[in-house]
Design brief:
With 595 residues, this protein is of the alpha/beta class. 46% of the residues lie in helices and 14% in strands. The protein has helices at 11-16, 28-34, 48-59, 67-71, 75-78, 103-125, 140-153, 167-175, 181-187, 192-206, 220-224, 249-262, 270-281, 298-311, 325-334, 339-347, 375-383, 405-419, 423-439, 443-458, 467-478, 525-528, 532-537, 540-544, 547-571; strands at 37-41, 88-93, 158-163, 209-216, 233-234, 247-248, 295-296, 353-355, 388-392, 398-401, 484-492, 495-503, 515-523, 577-585, 589-594. A five-stranded parallel sheet has the order 2-3-4-1-5, with helices on both faces. It has a five-stranded mixed sheet with strand order 11-12-13-14-15. Helix 7 (140-153) runs parallel beside helix 10 (192-206), helix 12 packs parallel to helix 14 (298-311) and helix 16 crosses helix 18 (405-419). The protein is elongated, with a radius of gyration of 27 Å. It comes from Thiothrix winogradskyi. This is AAA family ATPase.
């Protein structure tokens, strides 16, 4: 039985209590070579805290006697560097700093955390310090400066590790997206964060701090305090550190094999499980070299595999609640001037999202300029882990895309809430969708689309009004990752279906659920040579007989013939498969025909 370290980032506990540990210590010599002051950015819950805990125990002078216990059998244990167990460790975790209240409240929370960390440091290393460190409750910066001076005069050096350096500053920004004043107060001029990192910079120059390792999610805060700390090397996009955090495909394959053996399940289920993990937790790429391994989010994989090992079936809900904070990030970015349009473009697989380079130095002032330059918004979405690098184009530009279905669900939910802000409307849509999953009867949903949903769409400032608009409308209505693998532009033998709802393997036991394929066509009012009023006055039956509508339906049905053959052969349950050709007549009516 595999002991998955779900939610555990304590390296000694993992190594001494029999938990799974995926060895990343081969990177430690590379980190030493990369520089004395490093910044490493990854999305939330990607293993950054465990990495810091590993470094703490490798470099701490107090863990010398535990080296074999902790690192024996690991790559760095077989080939240690000269700097092992050399430093006094000072660790800050800015996720513990509250973003609540006014700037003085935040400053007080930061000072309390810094002073508590310094007090813990003194208790750990008091036998190695020649003089007493002066702790000042109302000025933790002075406490920190005193600590650096005493360590230096004692002939020692600090290794400073900062976890989630941008956490509370980003929380300040996201909580109040239309008022960045508090955020600016933290960073501008002689803001408290800028002042703190000036001391870090000076202490490294003076030799009291030997190394600094900083983790976070985005470079936003780093850019805003750049004049206070402009000496760190950002290793986040360096190809040699692509796998520093995360799970690789081969590692995931071994874990799936172990889980299946524990459940006494046949090895032939391995490919199906890996396919599910790929669809819902697909790989992330953290460099522009496409030959580097794709990575999976560890917390998502551990969530799924631990549940499967315990219950011998997949979890009902594929999105771990611990990652719901990412929805707030999407909501914040969607609230920016060009945000909603970007979300809609991202959901459209036919629209290629490209960037010359990922922005890695941009401040809060750029967030007010997003209508003119989307590169900052797209870069932030990448750093937050809700976009990833999927390819490069013929000019070498980065192509970005949604990494997986659980992330797609966050985008769809954000769009759904913007179009249907009233909870009662979202509940009504969910009930109608659930009935559709069991009957494939489109009439209730079509009625709702015509009476309410299209009005919400047409009242918005859309850059497009075509088949994609209709597909997006249905995607927001029907997306459900509890029952389905919901895919848009699904490849079926090199042809692409517009929207496919395939029952998840663990849900195929429920016979009332249907596999559903929808192919969409859009006809404008000018195509039909009719006004909106004329269209609204006619019955669906008469609209379906219009020559343009007949042509569109027949084209869609012909495409569906191919998709049905492919899916029937794959799933061997033709009685559950329903294929619908759907034609939208402007933003007024919907007609359809079942194959």
């Amino acid at each position: 039985m595999i002991r998955f370290p779900y939610g555990i980032s304590n390296f000694p506990a993992i190594r001494t209590e029999g938990y799974l540990y995926l060895d990343r210590t081969q990177h430690i010599p590379l980190l030493e070579e990369a520089g004395k002051q490093l910044v490493f950015l990854r999305p939330r819950r990607f293993g950054k805290s465990l990495l810091l805990s590993t470094l703490v125990n490798y470099y701490d002078v107090k863990t010398t006697n535990q080296f074999e216990t902790l690192f024996g059998g690991l790559e760095v244990g077989r080939n240690p560097t000269p700097e092992r167990n050399r430093y006094l460790i000072l660790r800050w975790d800015f996720s513990k700093v509250s973003a609540q209240g006014c700037i003085d409240d935040i400053k007080s929370s930061l000072f309390n955390h810094l002073n508590a960390s310094i007090e813990g440091f003194i208790q750990t290393y008091q036998d190695m310090l020649r003089f007493q460190v002066r702790i000042q409750d109302d000025d933790a910066l002075a406490s920190f400066q005193s600590l650096c001076n005493i360590v230096s005069s004692s002939g020692q050096q600090i290794y400073l590790l900062i976890d989630e350096y941008d956490n509370f500053a980003n929380e300040v920004l996201v909580r109040d997206p239309h008022n960045s004043r508090r955020y600016q107060d933290l960073l501008e001029g002689e803001g408290i964060l800028k002042s703190l990192f000036k001391i870090v910079k000076g202490s490294v120059a003076e030799g009291s701090i030997g190394r600094v390792f900083i983790t976070g999610v985005s470079p936003l805060v780093l850019a805003d305090m750049t004049s206070g700390y402009n000496v760190a090397t950002d290793i986040s996009l360096m190809p040699r550190f692509n796998t520093l955090c995360g799970i690789t495909q081969p590692e995931l394959g071994e874990l799936v094999t172990g889980v299946l053996q524990h459940c006494w399940q046949d090895e032939n289920q391995r490919d199906g499980l890996l396919q599910t993990l790929k669809q819902f937790y697909n790989g992330y790429r953290f460099c522009d070299q496409l030959d580097k391994p794709l990575l999976y989010n560890p917390i998502l994989c551990f969530y799924f595999l631990r549940h499967y090992q315990d219950e011998c079936t997949a979890p009902r809900q594929m999105l771990d609640g611990n990652l719901m904070m990412d929805a707030a990030r999407i909501r914040y970015l969607a609230s920016q001037p060009s945000g909603t349009g970007v979300v809609e473009r991202i959901l459209d697989e036919e629209s290629t999202i490209t960037l010359d380079v990922l922005e890695n130095r941009f401040g809060v002032e750029k967030l007010t300029d997003l209508q003119q330059d989307e590169s900052y918004l797209l870069s932030l979405l990448y750093y937050f882990g809700v976009l990833t690098i999927v390819d490069t184009d013929i000019l070498g530009k980065l192509t970005l895309g949604i990494p997986n279905l659980v992330t797609r669900a966050l985008y769809v939910d954000e769009l759904r809430q913007r179009i249907l802000p009233a909870p009662k409307d979202r509940i009504a849509v969910a009930n109608m969708a659930e009935k559709f999953y069991q009957s494939a009867d489109l009439q209730p949903l079509a009625d709702y689309l015509e009476q309410k949903y299209f009005a919400a769409f047409s009242n918005r400032d859309y850059a497009w009004s075509n088949e994609l608009t209709i597909k997006t409308a249905f995607l927001t209505l029907l997306f459900n990752d509890i029952y389905y693998v919901v895919d848009s532009e699904t490849a079926l033998q090199r042809r692409y279906a517009d929207l496919v709802l395939i029952i998840r393997p663990s849900m195929r036991q429920y016979p009332t659920l249907k596999d559903i394929v929808l192919e969409f066509k859009y006809l404008s009012l000018s195509d039909l040579k009719l006004s909106g009023e004329q269209i609204r006055e006619q019955s669906r039956e008469s609209l379906a007989q219009l020559p343009a509508v007949q042509t569109a339906l027949n084209d869609a049905l012909q495409q569906l013939q191919h998709y049905r053959a492919v899916l029937t052969e794959k799933y061997q349950e033709p009685q559950r498969l329903h294929c619908l050709a759907v034609v939208a007549l402007g933003f007024d009516r919907v007609v359809w025909q079942t194959l």
